[in-house]
Amino acid sequence: MKANLIPALCLLCCITANAKVKLPQLLSDHMVLQQQADARLWGEAAPNSTVTIRASWTNQPVETKADAQGVWNTAIGTPSASFTPQTLTISDGEPVTLHDVLIGEVWFCSGQSNMEMPLNGFDKCPIYDSNNVIADAPNHPGIRVATIERKSALTPQTYANGEWKEPTTENAQWFSATGYFYALALQRTLQVPVGIINCSWGGSCVEGWMPEEILKDYKDIDLNKAKEKEYSWTHPMIMYNALLYPCRNYTIKGFAWYQGCSNVGRADTYADRMATMVRHWRSIWKEGDIPFYYVEIAPFAYGNKPEAIDGALLREAQFKAQALIPNSAMISTNDLVEPYEAPQIHPQNKKDIGDRLAYQALVKTYGYKGIVADSPSYKEMQADGDKITVRFNHAEKGFSPWVDIEGFEIAGQDKVFHPAKAKFGSAPNEIIVSSPKVKKPVAVRYCFRNFQPGNLKNYRNLPVIPFRTDSW
């Protein structure tokens, strides 16, 4: 009798285990679902079973069928945003209930270390006012963050690790600082819950976030590097396979991207590759041309050469990428570093970066009026004797400061640049530059060096984007 009982109990345990759905970690307590959307849900269940989903905000359950391998994928309609906690019960026989689910806005934040950098900071690299921000975190229970754990894979994975966390002081110290400040700024205006998925890897190249099917056509990329036993931030495709691809089913509003430092030295390919990356991401999310807002890399003395232009060339490529990526915009960070941060690739000011990303979203995604999102950018120049008049876009109300404008250089036919004096022109969007060392200037540059912060801003304190008029 006892001999027959043991196999029977084992069989019962197996059936019970199979009857309980398996969910990805991204579907967890405390998550935020995108409002007024068909929010996708997915996982595993007993093969060929019926999976039933019941949400507290509707009386209409959703049913779907698991395939022969037990995989299922469906969607549930969500209402308008609310701070009222909801529940979500998913069952193929034995229910799994997710608690404290909020309905709001969800953004996918990705990139390298300056996106990854938590409010806790890195060693010798603090986040400005971090203690105060962390202490204040419990006052913002409508913000939730899911941080995708770092791992490597040679092929696209089904699941990634990363559960949603509430903003307790213990949790908040590990939240992406840029992502958290972005969420704070959005919530302040939208007044709805905001969820951030932080999927970043310090030092990663843009090629790390692209699939093999694209990378195999890039002659300068060695895919064999990804097969090395010790994974590295230099490896292609491993971030895409292990971190990003498993998140593709989660319904989001858009992307925020902060990357570029590890592509310095390869600026000639960057704009096109980032555009290709975005196009592919949008294709696997299947939500159309959802917004892609990104951050210009900050001034930094690459190779201990603040006067060189390797970093400036990458920033130039980032700026040009806007024309290649529909529904995208770049924010400038040229003014957000301190002089002592020239050898520090992780500047402490992440709040203004999060705010500026939010301005782009609030104006261009959510349609708010009265907020200025775009920095002044170079439009055209006109040489006249010993001076050059430079005109800008997004500067209809002029500039600040009135005196001691810093960051301009001009050159003559000899291609040697000299610091230039700058003053306001006759039109609000004009700046006139000159130098006693250049009698007939033909080219202008503004902050076009690895580390050269400027101080010229528009009337809403957004910085002029670094630029050059030459192609030397």
UniProtKB/TrEMBL annotation:
GO terms for biological process: carbohydrate metabolic process. Residues 1-19 form the signal peptide. It comes from the Bacteria. Keywords: Hydrolase, Signal. It holds the Pfam family SASA. Residues 105-361 form the Sialate O-acetylesterase domain. One of its GO terms (molecular function) is sialate O-acetylesterase activity. This is Sialate O-acetylesterase.
